[in-house]
Structure formats: C-alpha cells, structure tokens
From TrEMBL:
UniProt KW Signal keyword: yes
Residues in the signal sequence: 1-22
Keywords, comma-separated and alphabetical: Signal
Annotated source species: Speluncibacter jeojiensis
Protein name as annotated: Lipoprotein
C-alpha cells in the first residue's frame, strides 16, 4: 500500500502538516519541531518512499543521545501513529522503528532497546 505525502497540499491551503508540533503547556519545553529532512529520512523506508503525514512531533532522548519522532499517518486503513528513533533532526542518520506501527509502515529495523514510557507520554502530548 503506497502512501502519499500531503504536506504540499496542506501548505498550499495555508496549513502546516510537517515541521510544526502542537504542544500543551506541560510538555512544550520538551517538544521539538520535526523538519522536513527528518520526515523524508523516515519516508525513505516506506513502500513507495512516501507517507501521508498529517502531524509530527519529537522529543530528545537524552539518555540515548537520540531523538524520538512520532508521525501521524493517514492510510487506507485509517489514521495510525508510529514512532521512530533518529540520531538527530538536522542531519538524520540511521533510523530505527520504535514501535510495531512504525515497523509496519516502514522497513526500518526495530530499536534494540526500550525507549521509556515517559518519552512516549511526552510525544503523545506534543502530537496532541
């Protein structure tokens, strides 16, 4: 199943799909904006090389020295949210799937260690 990225369509409509994170006041200090380069790096692992990303958020994993990125993706089966681990957001290197949704959307290997419930809770708050 191929996914299409709608960032250009939403941008033309004056809406931002990628590169903006919606954070509540409790988590805003931890929320990071996900640049297009990071989304594109994750998308390279998707069938067809694109995902229909409707929302994005990220938090820094200070323990591992990485960044966790969560993408909300629209597909034929509905909306799903997956998480990936990147070395950084500006020049993303290796990509790892953090959960089963991410592994199902892309071919990136599963992260070989747990990322912690607190980081996932922060990501969920950032994504809104």
């Amino acid at each position: 199943m191929a996914f299409l990225r709608t960032g250009a369509v939403l941008a033309a409509a004056g809406l931002a799909a990628v590169g903006v994170s919606a954070c509540d006041s409790d988590s805003s200090a931890r929320c990071l904006t996900v640049p297009d380069a990071a989304v594109e790096q994750i998308e390279r692992g998707a069938p067809g090389g694109t995902l229909d990303v409707t929302k994005s958020a990220a938090v820094r994993n200070d323990v591992a020295g990485t960044v966790l990125v969560e993408l909300r993706v629209q597909g034929s089966g509905g909306e799903r949210t997956g998480a990936w681990s990147l070395s950084n957001l500006e020049a993303p290197g290796p990509v790892f799937s953090v959960d089963e949704v991410a592994a199902g959307l892309t071919h990136w290997p599963m992260l070989p260690y747990a990322t912690g419930a607190e980081l996932h809770a922060d990501l969920d708050k950032c994504l809104g």
